[in-house]
Structures are given as C-alpha cells and as structure tokens.
Amino acid sequence: MKNYIDIFKTYLVETKKASRNTVESYIRDIEQFSAYCVGIKITDLSVIDTNALNGYLEYLSVIGKSDATKTRIVASLRSYYRFLISQGIVRKNPVDGIKIKKAQKKLPGILTSNEIVLLLAQPSAGDYKSIRDKAMLELLYATGIKVSELIDLKVTDVNLQIGIIHLHTDKSERIIPLYPAAIKSVAEYLVNVRPAIVLDSNEDKLFTNMTGQHMSRQGFWKIIKHYADTAGIKKEITPHTLRHSFAAHLLENGAKLTDIKELLGHSDISSTQVYAQLMKSKYTSAYARFHPLAK
Q1: Where along the chain do its domains lie?
Q2: Among 53, 49, 50, 91, which Cα is nearest to 70's?
Q3: Considering only the top CATH level, what class is 113-288?
Q4: What is the pTM of this model?
Q5: CATH code that applies to domain 2-86
C-alpha cells in the first residue's frame, strides 16, 4: 500500500499543486487508515470495501474522534480512491455511499482589539528572538495570512518601501498592505536580526528558527501560545487566531466582505461569510445581555 500512497503524494504535489498542509493532511489520513487495515489483516487494496470503511469510522468514534475529523478523513480517502481508479489500480470507490453526520460548523475564535494590543506588546525583551517574534506577530495580524503562508514568505515577497507583501502561487496572487507598526517591526528584524541568525546565503525564507533553519507551523504555534500565556489571555489560541481576528476586526470597522475575501485569498465568498455570522452572533449576544427589555 505504501507505494500507492507515495504515488498519490507525488500526484498531489506535482499535478494538483496542492499546498504542503493539504498534502500532509491527506497523506496522514491515508497512512492511518492503511495502518488500521494492516492491523485487521487487510493488505490488498482491492478487498477494501464499504464495510471495512464503516468499521474504521466506528473505530475512530471509539477513540474519540469528532464528526468533523471523520468527515475530513472520508474526504481524504475519497480523493485517494478516485486517483487509484483513474490509474486503473482499483475498480470501485469504497467511499461511495459512506455518510457522515454533518458536523455543526463552529464559529472561529477571535481576540478583541485590546487583547491583540496586549499580545503584540509581549515580545519586548529587545533580544534577537523577541524582535523576530514581534515582527512575525505584527505581520500576521497586519495581513491576515495563514501561518503556512507566513513561514513560507521569502525576503523578496516583502516590499517595505511601499508597505506591502506579495503572495503568489500557481493558482493565485495577492498583494496585501502593511500598517506602519508592522513595517517598522519587520524592518528592525531584517536589519538587526536576520543577518545574525541566517548564515546560509541560499536561505530565502523571511523568517526562520533561531538556528537559521526552516520554521515549522507547530513551532510558530508554540510561539503564539507562549505570548498569549504571558499576556494572560485565557481564550483558546490556534494558528489561525490572528487571521480570524484580522478578518473580524476589518468587518467590524466597516470593510466589505468582498474586500476581506480578496485579502484572505478565499476562492468563494461563502468561506468569508462566516465572519458575518460571527459578528451577528456577537451583537445578538450583547443585545440579549444589555437591552433592558430583552430579558
């Protein structure tokens, strides 16, 4: 089975041009299912059927996986089997007919404006790490980009003279402005810190870890979690928290959904409308709490 997974991974990377996170998620889901099949003595792809898949989903429920996780896994396996069929490796897609209880979409968690100010103030020691971390946090909130996009940014993607970052892939291109404090923080990092920690002249990434190596998404998550803790922020923090806060604060201050959609790089406006739902929920809650006749 491993050979087919490797072939599928190559297809995702070279043909579909899928993002690194997408590829990692698909392959992780498929490898875990493959390990389960081996555990129940199934090593031939052609004998995996709907019953085997339903057994796997029951197993996932037993170990506490959510409906949302199971839905994602089914989507990964569906894509995998479609690829296998297209290559003539199997004849039927055992995922067809599998139905998962639709997970209720959870509204994203955001920080308040005051919490953002508090969070951004935390890297204040003035050492190399604090200056780098400050630049990363400021840039993330200034642009609303994903953490994966942040750690993949190249030095040449940033133009501080005109105050923008330029994101470009095979599928899309975005130019996002930076506010003055973000420009200042990134400039200080580029002048005073990056030359001291990135000794490899071939390293083109804007941000690295403190040894000059590529930073992982998990590594950045630990950074933002640390500063949230030191700021005394009790809310659950995820790698997307600043992205969600960026979008919600723009909307709250009068930005159009269509403009936010372009800034976030969403392909469909329905992905952006979740922030409108978030604002509606927020104001409905405030109304219920504070209007004298709403109780």
Answers
A1: 2-86, 113-288
A2: 53
A3: mainly alpha
A4: 0.66
A5: 1.10.150.130
